[in-house]
Specification:
This protein has 264 residues and is an all-alpha fold. It has three domains: 51 residues, no CATH class; 109 residues, no CATH class; 57 residues, no CATH class. Helices cover 53% and strands 0% of the residues. Helix 4 packs antiparallel against helix 6.
Length: 264
């Protein structure tokens, strides 16, 4: 029994073993290899285990007992991650900016939470992921951003499971946040009147917005206006002077609607 306890706790004898002891050691290892690991987990005898013969996980084992954010940072490192390298080899698009965004999620959200829990790759569970989901659920960020924060970890956990570094994927079945967006409406005449009666920080921005509101032009089309596009020369000169000599920036989306097909 003492011999079994030594091996159970990972303590190997420092002396040479007899044939009988070697046979007992081999039999013990065979029994451990044949055990149903899920039963041991259900009985709270182990947290996680992967038999060496099943491991095809490359460098992942070095992160098994480190805090979970260390594995996440390695996983999302654009230049060194084998996950990213494999996606690129298969022609799947994954950019450096995407990885940098995930690293920011790790620094801003995962690490502060993990510093309180010291959760590792082998000890993280569905329950702990659900606790983290509740943690970010109280943050004043959009549902889509919260989902990006969650997938920063769920993608990494799925990869670790696929590479057989962990016996199961604890993120399976995890609920994500609703991404319902508020419907954009149209200003009523009263709202538009109030909007243009208040004091604007930049007069040119007010003029450009008023132009879009009264003509239906998009922001990029207002920026492309020319003198000859406006009928009255005096008014045109005054408008273009304000638009051209005061800097303002518009974010453009889609193509221009000012393209006209030739009637020839």
């Amino acid at each position: 029994m003492r011999r079994f306890n030594l091996y159970k706790h990972g303590i190997l004898p420092n002396r040479k073993q007899t044939v009988e002891e070697l046979f007992t050691s081999h039999r013990l290892k065979t029994q451990l290899d044949s055990m149903n690991l899920s039963v041991l987990k259900d009985r709270n005898l182990i947290v996680a285990a992967v038999t060496p013969s099943d491991t095809e996980s490359g460098p992942i084992p070095q992160f098994l007992n480190q805090r979970f954010d260390a594995y996440l940072e390695w996983f999302w490192s654009y230049d060194t991650s084998p996950y990213i390298a494999r996606k690129r080899r298969h022609g799947q698009s994954i950019g450096r900016a995407h990885c940098e965004e995930r690293l920011r999620h790790i620094r801003n959200h995962w690490r502060p939470w993990l510093e309180k829990t010291s959760t590792t790759l082998t000890s993280i569970s569905y329950s702990s992921l659900d606790d983290f989901s509740a943690y970010i659920g109280n943050k004043s960020v959009a549902g889509q951003t919260k989902n990006h924060i969650l997938t920063t970890a769920t993608s990494a956990l799925k990869y670790a499971y696929d590479m057989r570094a962990i016996p199961e994927n604890p993120a399976r079945g995890l609920l994500f946040f609703s991404t319902n967006h508020r419907k954009c409406g149209v200003l009523t005449p009263e709202e538009a009147r109030e909007l243009f009666q208040i004091e604007w920080l930049h007069e040119s921005a007010k003029l450009a917005s008023l132009t879009t509101a009264t003509t239906g032009l998009r922001a990029g089309e207002v920026a492309a206006l020319r003198l000859e596009d406006i009928g009255e020369p005096t008014i045109a000169d005054a408008i273009m002077d304000r638009l051209a000599h005061t800097p303002w920036i518009f974010e453009l989306k889609g193509g221009s609607r000012r393209r006209q097909t030739s009637s020839d």
